[in-house]
Amino acid sequence: MESLNSRTLASVPGTVRVPGARPARSGVLHIGAGAFHRAHQAVYTDDTDWGITIAAPRSREVIDALAAQDGLYTVATLGPDGASVRVVGSIVDTLHLATETERAIGLVAAEDTHVVTLTVTEKAYRDPDGVPGLLARGLARRAEQSGAPVTILCCDNLPDNGETTRAAVEPLLDDRTRAWADKHVTFPSTMVDRIVPASTQATYDRAAEALGLADAAAVEAEPFSQWVIEDRFAGPRPEWDATFTGDVAGWERLKLRTLNGVHSTLAYLGALAGVETIGDALALPGARGFAERLIAEQIAPSFTPPDGQSTVAYGRSVLERFANPGIRHRCLQVAMDGSQKLPQRLFATIADLTAAGVRPELIALPLAAWIRFCAGRADDGASLPLDDPLAPVLRRSLADAGARPADLVDAILRVRQVVPEPVASNDELRQATAAWLADLDRHGAAQTLESL
Ligand code: CS2
């Protein structure tokens, strides 16, 4: 089968939406070549006349596939009643950070790069030798050359993600660059949302069937998509069809605590119960009822949602999205990097909840499920992978703690890189988590949910 590219695009059937004239220049440098970017920011940009240069930090696989296809790829939108497929044309160039560092620095510095967007996962912001270091070197050159303003836009699921990015980059700047950056570089916060499972053979097969062409960069996603951006750009930006606001903090909290918090909850409970996807986990008897109570009784009282939003109503729509049978989002994908995700998904909720005087009873169950997941065995004894930058620390803490649930809970709550004070020393939380962990040990996740 021939591949999708600028020449073969003309043969794509009329049922598939294809891009019109391709943007001549990029203007946006994007770092992180995962499926999420291709199904989210790149789609928003496809509806403007801007283009993107996409940079992959390590693996070349995606950018090589994109380069061979002249940047073209398909996004399949999977609803409960079938798929619609679209070819996206906003990616106009590719870059490999690991081998083209000089070119990458040059692009961060280039006067006609106006926005640098990032999807590099939560853990990347802690690595000064990685993306933050590259941004710092690019900004130093930019300050020296044109001095043109630039916006750095974090699209990762972190709280105050603009400020988190600034805090990762700024200490790496020399004094002169820092003084310049204070005036000419902004780091707006964003809330990004679309469920985009990792592509599988089924994704490539579906694209091939719709296009009559092979597409090695195809992705698939749910119909829902949302992008809330703090309106604080240093220079020009694409006319994205996003929500621009003065303050994204409320949206970030709503999304991280409700969608991502419940996502992680279902991922750990589902993995322990031996089911494959988030949808399967939600379908376990008792799971939906538990998720609804978790949202109403523990997540909602922990923060104030943005004006006009109700956390309970938002949560209900999130559960509908999780139940979409078109989407097969694996529990193990969401379970990855728990140590980097749970601070904003669970521990921030617990901290605010207890400050508001509410007992962290139900929310201790996902914490117990994560602890059991870290120990590496599903309820049927099958081994579970711990794909997490802190895996050695977590595993060693658990191994040294012995077998008593209370000791295991204490061992994990003591991992200060993950669990902040005062959550770590919250007695109610420790007791509730140990009790849930004992239930999970004795009855397994499925039974524990069912008996709620
Ligand atoms: C998920 C997110 O993998 C995960 O941890 O919770 O990727 C989630 O699908 C997105 O944030 C949805 O916008």
Brief write-up:
The chain has 452 residues and is an alpha/beta fold.
Your description of this structure?
With 452 residues, the chain is an alpha/beta fold. The protein has two domains: 8-245, Rossmann fold, CATH 3.40.50.720; 249-451, N-(1-d-carboxylethyl)-l-norvaline Dehydrogenase, domain 2 (Orthogonal Bundle), CATH 1.10.1040.10. The protein is 46% helix and 13% strand. It has 18 helices and twelve strands. The protein has helices at 35-39, 41-46, 61-68, 101-109, 131-144, 161-169, 175-184, 201-211, 249-273, 278-283, 287-299, 311-322, 331-335, 338-355, 364-375, 391-401, 405-413, 427-450; strands at residues 27-31, 51-56, 73-79, 82-88, 91-96, 115-118, 150-154, 185-186, 190-193, 219-221, 226-230, 243-245. The strands form three sheets. A six-stranded parallel beta sheet has the order 5-2-1-6-7-8, sandwiched between helices. Strands 4-3-10 form a three-stranded mixed beta sheet. Strand 3 and strand 4 (82-88) form a beta hairpin. The radius of gyration is 22 Å and the shape is globular. The model has no long low-confidence stretch (mean pLDDT 97). Bound molecules: D-mannonic acid. D-mannonic acid is lined by residues 157, 193-195, 260, 263, 333-334, 341.
